[in-house]
Amino acid sequence: MRTTDPEVQRRIVHRLRRARGQLDAVINAVEQEKPCRDIVTQLAAVSSALDRAGFAIVSTAMKDCLSDPDAALAEDGITTEELEKLFMMLA
Question: Alpha-carbon distance 42 to 40, whole Å?
């Protein structure tokens, strides 16, 4: 993912690392035969963290693409139409 804002990239990486930690907790819960409630709660947290990261990635790409569509197409080969499809995949 390319972004001109290092702070945005830092936040996205942070969300993904948090999701990785939550996924490790799910795996441990399954291995330790924890109650279903605990496992599903952790899964929901993982899902939410991944969704937030995905939305942040797509919204950043949309901002970049809308501000300079020709550069976005040249650099990433992405159009606003494709970004819309990617957004809908997350919805």
Answer: 5
